[in-house]
Design a protein that fits this description.
Blueprint (H helix, E strand, L loop, with lengths): L7 H21 L1 H30 L3 E3 L1 H27 L2 E2 L3 E2 L1 H26 L6 E3 L18 H14 L6 E5 L6 H13 L9 E8 L4 H11 L3 H5 L6 H9 L5 E8 L5 H4 L10 E6 L2 H6 L4 E4 L5 H12 L6 H13 L4 H10 L6 H12 L9 H14 L6 H7 L11 H10 L9 H13 L1
Helix pairs in contact: 1-4, 2-3, 2-4, 3-4, 5-6, 12-14, 13-15, 18-19
Length: 457
């Protein structure tokens, strides 16, 4: 407060003295402040250890910490880390310059920090005091199996045989990884979905505590895979609170609590590093893995124990599946004959058969069936409802995904041969070389090696 006649110089002097006095006071409180903080930190750390011991004990009973406790523990961990760093500085401040003078600035800084930290620690201690008596609640366990919306294939002979084989492999403890491979549209996802649903409805007894289905897709995104697994485990909210770098560790710990787990990785396009995802493997606690993929190379890279190839359907199986989706046909011989031809034009692809069969369901006139057959034979998808979106678009997308020098051109080159023509490999490679799809500077042997590699791709 300024007094009448008090000079500006005097007021500034008083302000400086007040500031200096405050700093000197904080400096001389170095020991009381740091000792007080040390005592409060011990009280806080002891409280945290007691809670963690309690949670470990209740965790064995299937309980998890309540949300306030989940939020409180990381805050305590954070302030403990800050205190450990401060203690190193406190030890350093005990050393004197030239054996005589203390490090005044460091002591002032630590004393001031201690005053601030004491307030934070007190808040955490007060928060702990307000916790309810029950610090853990029963963990809502996920269902062991979730049924999927997929039509049954048990009445389809070829598919049913594959399903029987898959069931035997899944129940065999000696087999850890199963690969299911084949071109797009042949029903790999339908196969594993039917297996899942049989376990869900109890028609297939199984030993798994939980069955987890993950959709992978062509663009490999490990975090997306981890979130799908965490959501299935009812663990997603907790996972997202942590840094993404810790997700694999946390998922590994969570999955190891399951005695037996079946992990289905659907639509895998390239090798997945299971360790980076957090999927336990290689021991009694490991998950049994089923993966579906278009390429047997992916099965090899993932080191599958057994592989099942899902191929296109033969004429008998195609006709059987088509009949199921098209429903009852009019008692007209020409329509029945056209229906058999339409089914054949689907080339054994279950996806195409289902879509075309469904689109022709209820069609009673010969003209409608002739138009459908003509549309399929002339590759005009617009003539048949839903075929463009459900069949041709996925096929085009698969074509667009072909990678590597000239691979698309080499693929399209095959369309120059007649339909159902048997193409000789050596002849095809010579044609590719003549049209500069293979480097002309290569010798004959090198050209053939490059050509074989393209054919395999």
């Amino acid at each position: 407060m300024a007094f009448p006649g008090e000079s500006a110089v005097l007021r500034v002097g008083k302000l400086l003295c007040t500031t200096i006095y405050s700093k000197i006071t904080i400096f001389f409180k170095f020991h009381p402040n740091t000792d007080s903080l040390r005592a409060k930190m011990k009280e806080l750390s002891d409280s945290k250890q007691n809670i963690e011991g309690y949670l470990e004990s209740t965790g064995k009973q299937g309980k998890v910490a309540i949300l306030p406790v989940k939020d409180w523990i990381p805050k305590v961990n954070n302030i403990e880390g800050q205190w450990n760093s401060m203690e190193e500085d406190i030890k350093a401040s005990q050393k004197h310059f030239c054996g005589c003078f203390p490090n005044c600035y460091l002591r002032y800084k630590l004393s001031k920090s201690s005053e601030e930290k004491i307030k934070e620690v007190k808040e955490l201690i007060d928060t702990r005091a307000n916790f309810p008596e029950e610090l853990a609640i029963p963990n809502p366990q996920p269902e062991s199996v979730q049924e999927m919306p997929e039509p049954s294939i048990v009445d389809q002979k070829a598919a049913s045989e594959l399903l029987d084989r898959l069931k035997e492999l899944v129940l065999n403890d000696d087999i850890r990884k199963i690969g299911i491979w084949g071109m797009g549209g042949v029903g790999k996802t339908t196969l594993v979905s039917n297996l899942n649903n049989m376990m869900a409805d109890g028609s297939l007894a199984h030993p798994f505590d939980i069955i987890i289905l993950v959709t992978v897709s062509s663009i490999l995104d490990l975090h997306r895979i981890q979130l799908q697994i965490a959501e299935r485990l009812k663990f997603k909210e907790e996972l997202e609170k942590e840094s993404e770098g810790r997700w694999a560790t946390l998922l590994l710990q969570r999955l190891k609590k399951q005695k037996k787990c079946l992990m289905i990785l659907d639509d895998v396009w390239e090798k997945i590093d299971l360790d980076k995802v957090g999927i336990p493997q290689g021991d009694l606690l490991g998950c049994k893995i089923i993966l579906t993929t278009r390429s047997v190379d992916v099965c090899n890279q993932m080191e599958t124990t057994v592989d099942i190839r899902v191929d296109i359907l033969n004429d008998e199986a195609s006709s059987e599946l088509f009949s199921k989706h098209v429903g009852e046909l009019p008692d007209v011989e020409e329509i029945k004959s056209l229906a058999r031809d339409v089914a054949k034009e689907c080339k054994g692809l279950p996806l195409a058969i289902k879509v075309v069969g469904g689109s022709m369901r209820g069609k009673k006139r010969v003209e409608q069936w002739r138009k459908a057959l003509r549309g399929l034979r002339t590759s005009a998808p617009k003539n048949i409802e839903r075929v463009e979106d459900d069949v041709f678009q996925p096929l085009k997308w698969s074509y667009d995904s072909l990678e590597g020098q000239n691979i698309q051109h080499c693929f399209l080159y095959c369309s120059l041969f007649p339909e159902d023509f048997s193409i000789d490999e050596d002849e095809l490679i010579r044609c590719w070389r003549a049209d500069a799809l293979i480097d002309e500077s290569m010798n004959i042997e090198e050209s053939r090696e490059s050509g074989v590699d393209l054919i395999e791709s």
